[in-house]
Automatic annotation (TrEMBL):
Entry's Gene Ontology molecular function annotations: hydrolase activity
UniProt keyword Hydrolase, yes or no: yes
Organism in which the protein naturally occurs: Emticicia oligotrophica (strain DSM 17448 / CIP 109782 / MTCC 6937 / GPTSA100-15)
Gene3D superfamilies, A to Z: 1.50.10.10
Record domain Mannosylglycerate hydrolase MGH1-like glycoside hydrolase: where: 35-433
Protein's recorded name: Glycoside hydrolase family 37
Keyword set, alphabetical order: Glycosidase, Hydrolase, Plasmid
Membership in a protein family: Belongs to the glycosyl hydrolase 63 family.
Amino acid sequence: MNFNHSAIESLRERSIVTLKKNWREGFTVPSANLYPFQWLWDSGFVSMGWSLIDKYKARLELETLFGAQWENGMIPHIIFHNDSPEKQYFPDAKFHGSEASDLSPKHVKTTGMTQPPVLGFVLEFLFENEIDKQKYLDFYRSAVKSVFRFHQYLYQNRDPKNEGLVYIRHNWESGTDNCAVWDSVWARYSAPTYDFVRKDTLHVDQSQRPTKKDYNYYMNLIELSRNCGYDEQKMYEILPFLIQDPLFNSILAKSNQCLSRLSNALDLPELSVQFDEWYAKTAHGINTKLFDDVLGQYTYFDLKNNVQISEPTAMGFAPLFAGIASEERANKMAELILSKHFLGENLDGYLCPSLGYSSSAFDPVRYWRGPIWPHINWLLAIGFKQYGFLEIAEKLRNDIIELSVKKGFYEYFSPIKSEEFKIGYGGEDFSWTAAILLLIME
Ligand code: 9WN
């Protein structure tokens, strides 16, 4: 599909309208009805989008996020800025019960978990796009220090074997909620059946969301964590879900690398040295523990059960984004993404399905089990481009533009090109879809 100047212009206009529509007082909701609060990694991507059209809002978005940082440095995954939309979303602030920990903020409720640490590369992007850098040095210095505390929290509390790989302790921390990789974790135990009313399925068809059975596991992990008072050591001892995730760790590595450069630019050399050390350590951990030679990409490690879990996923290409894969591994991954595992039997699909076609759990419309996600394409495009795979990068970028033009600003899209899947899926008028479009049309 060719995009002429006026098509690109109208896409840009629509992106701006979407972001403005989803702006609240000091932050952006991911999607007005489905997700009415502030989410960590959404805010990061959205803030980069804002920085191209309204730099004040870009900074304020992050400032609001830092305002909810826990005393131990954790930046929470959801910040429940107000109570009323709770009717729209479950599990609500009460179920998460952040007040169970003395370390949670007193002025606002949050969840007791985090999300992929995107803020490092986000801050560098914002800083590079500032016109008057001198004017905002205080903002950036303070922001870098907040993210430093966040990363320090991750390394001190989530890397028990000192491998440079931090673990996630809830599937929502991955950002890729019902990823097929967790199925083997759930298969090892049964979660209680909770009596609750889901709100997500009021907004989106059940077939596009995780199953009710999956939700019992999600709720159970929250309940167990809350009962530990969100004490990291206690959670480490009892939680059945402790995963070293290639996307989360690659994003952490990339953020460390960006923050090292940014700290130098801000005259914070001692922080830069630490970010460099963390980058090297995590790169080493990812390379020594997470690559699966048979699959030809990076994969997951279940720390609780001491076993590698291999599924073909979009997330398994993320180490390219952080520049930590060798040329040889990058070549293998380029071959894999262009194979029937990711393009489908006829090699004619859109890139990049969140789960490969060859997985038995593949489902083109069910959330993280097949659909394409715009922000994942954005970071994979950067990754493949860095290694010289320009055509793959172009396709990742163009497919998102084509899908948004044809189907709208949806949360996710089917990778299969056919009449059967002519619509977009999940939430509509989605903030990071708008932000990512602004970024890739730059
Ligand atoms: C739980 C907000 C979030 C994203 C996640 C996405 C989805 C939430 C949910 O929406 O997760 O965090 O209720 O399904 O999976 O990546 O941050 O857009």
